[in-house]
Amino acid sequence: MGDTRLSIEEAVSRVEILDLFARYCHAIDRYEFSLFADVFTDDVVADYSEVRDPADEPIIHGRRAFAAWLEESMAPIGAGMTHYMTNHLITVDGDEARVVSHNHVLNVGMGGVYHSRAVRTPEGWRIAEIRFEARYFAPVVDRLNAAMAAGGTSV
């Protein structure tokens, strides 16, 4: 196996990027989209097409438009959600990083995988592109129960 040690600069970048995604979750969970200024670039490209209304444009351009869409779509729920982001795979290449993160939303029967590109700005790391790949839990539970029932057990 090759050398897997990180430089101090890359290790610091990874910690800052982890904090970036934590800030994203906290902003959503608190329903405080003004906090997005510390999370996203002004011109962020957000692809939530798997969960957006098919009548809407699939890609959202800009932090303000992204925040407005989330504020509107989350209005029935409001503050009090709980997001967990885990299993971050971060590849830093200079002032850019690719990030794949798993997400679980405790309050609803779904989560997903985020595919993101972060960039280093004078203000710190910010997300410039984010794509959400939805994962719904009910089908997984149904498949697991069917498999368990075939073996004489269920969950």
Description of the structure:
A six-stranded mixed beta sheet has the order 2-1-6-5-4-3. The longest helix has 22 residues. β3 and β4 form a beta hairpin. It is α+β, with helices and mostly antiparallel strands and 155 residues long.
- Strand coverage percent: 35-45%
Read across the widest sheet, the strand sequence of neighbours is 2-1-6-5-4-3
* Percent in helix: 25-40%
Can you summarize the main beta sheet? 6 strands, mixed
**If you compute it from the alpha carbons, what radius of gyration comes out, rounded to the nearest whole angstrom?**
18 Å
Based on secondary structure, the structural category is alpha+beta
The helix count comes to: 3
Q: Can you tell me the overall shape?
A: globular
The arrangement of helices and strands along the chain is HEEHEEEEH
The first-level CATH class name:
Alpha Beta
Distance between the termini: 40 Å
In the CATH hierarchy, the third-tier topology is known as Nuclear Transport Factor 2, Chain: A
Task: Give a quick summary of the entry.
With 155 residues, the protein is α+β, with helices and mostly antiparallel strands. The protein has helices at 8-29, 63-74, 137-150, and strands at 40-47, 59-61, 83-93, 96-105, 110-121, 124-136.
Topology summary:
Blueprint (H helix, E strand, L loop, with lengths): L7 H22 L10 E8 L11 E3 L1 H12 L8 E11 L2 E10 L4 E12 L2 E13 H14 L5
Parallel strand pairs: 1-6
Antiparallel strand pairs: 1-2, 3-4, 4-5, 5-6
Which terms would index this structure?
single chain, about 160 residues, alpha+beta, Nuclear Transport Factor 2, Chain: A, six-stranded mixed sheet, 3 helices, 6 strands, about 30% helix, about 35% strand
